[in-house]
Amino acid sequence: MRIHVFNVVMIVAFVLGANSPIxxxxxxDLKYGSQYQGKREDAAMQKFRSNRFGQFIHWGLYAIPxxxxxxxxxxxxxxxxxxxxxxxxxxxxxxVDKFNPxxxxxxxxAIMAKKMGVKYATITTKHHDGFCLWNSEYTDFxxxxxxxxxxxxxxxxxxxxxxxxxxxxxxxxxxWHHPDWRNDIKTDEDSIAFERYFQFAKNQLLELQxxxxxxxxxxxxxxxxxxxxxxxxxxxxxxxxxKAVNPxxxxxSRLRAxxxxxxxxxxxxxxxxxxxxxxxxxxxxxxxxTIVKMDWESCxxxxxxxxxxxxxxxxxxxxxxxxxxxxxxxxxxxNGNFLLNFGPDGNGAIREExxxxxxxxxxxxxxxxxxxxNGVFANLEKQDWGYYIKNTKTNTLYGVLFxxxxxxxxxxxxxxxxxxxxxxxxxxxxxxxxxIPHEKHYLVKLPKIMFKHPVVLEFKLE
Length: 462
Ligand code: LM5
Prior knowledge:
Layout: H1 5-16, H2 21-25, H3 43-51, E1 53-57, E2 68-69, E3 72-73, H4 81-84, H5 89-93, H6 95-98, H7 106-116, E4 120-126, H8 152-162, E5 166-172, H9 188-211, E6 217-221, H10 226-229, H11 232-245, E7 250-251, E8 276-280, E9 296-300, H12 321-333, E10 336-342, H13 352-368, E11 375-376, E12 386-391, E13 396-401, E14 409-412, E15 420-426, E16 430-432, E17 435-437, E18 442-445, E19 455-461
Parallel strand pairs: 1-4, 1-10, 4-5, 5-6, 6-7, 8-9, 9-10
Antiparallel strand pairs: 2-3, 11-12, 12-13, 13-19, 14-18, 15-16, 15-19, 17-18
(3S,4R,5S)-N-benzyl-3,4-dihydroxy-5-methyl-D-prolinamide is lined by residues 58, 77, 79-80, 221, 224, 280, 299, 307.
């Protein structure tokens, strides 16, 4: 392990405590660190933040085998099959000839996404296997090489645009196909090869941006290898290059490494990129007091761990719509976005289970989205019954109820100078609830009925 003088200073400062003058004074000059402190407040970032709910799409060659190779079903993530089933590149490359998604109807996808209530969608343009879903001039391992007559990404962008949904591109830095990709840099030859790979990736990204100027941002993945961590300047240059073309571009923190290989956050502890994207298949804790100070996004699968299409969803728990809604609500209550994944099959169809979940979420969103879009952390003491969310546009305080107490009484604790004047329940119409003042908090009396789904309460304050 390399220990830098700076790190030693940080350790000493940490031992001395957060109020130590050493820690306060100590900010190192980094060439490839964070670009600004605090949150980005421009209109593009505010739009991303207000969107709150997005759709992730994982689609690529892996959708054809769907987790099965030579009669054997691999329970791991379907988009990792080439690696988990140890498939040779020639066998994997041959999938290009089989890729011809006759059922691909991006307008249908976009209408479904709109009905579900998402305001943005992030699609894989290239996953770890290196296959490109757009027609790229820098590789032949792309959609143009298949029998499919068209440009998948182009059709996707246009269809989602028609529904008013913002489009983001997922791009994996990791590349199992490119001969210059390296896991680590051990020799000069590795360095030279990796520099070529970097140029390739940068060219592709600028190509995507030039072809699709409406893209709002990039979601980078596959950045955990030593080769990338040792080249913080590459990650910095990519961020800069994309923003030079369009300063509104939004980049996730996962792209970035700094001068010392520190990821997401630089060696000074400042977030790199525009939002924290480390939450893959988990959410921050309700007690996390630092998370509400930054922008972040959690991405989530519907089964336990499947992003690409997998034929057998009986192998792991498939989340209920209400579980997913709780994750969305929890994310918003902590100032985060929530990106829910879909994995279309090799023909371009979205599986029935996903359509059903999207419809259920959509029904809930139709009634309750005032508590989602423009929702922020309400800075109130968390209660066991659910989550508080403040709508910044209407300045309304909501509570989203997930756990109804046997007593039918829920506790609401407000700052000393704030009074609870009313509480309106939205469920089968609107209903005013009784408020019972208590010593240092209020109790709100819920009706005795059993709710079928999470319900939203509007708290009237004075
Ligand atoms: C994430 C972080 C460290 C090691 C491995 C992983 C696994 N995740 C992935 O490789 C990809 N990220 C997801 C968004 C999905 O694309 C998955 O294949």
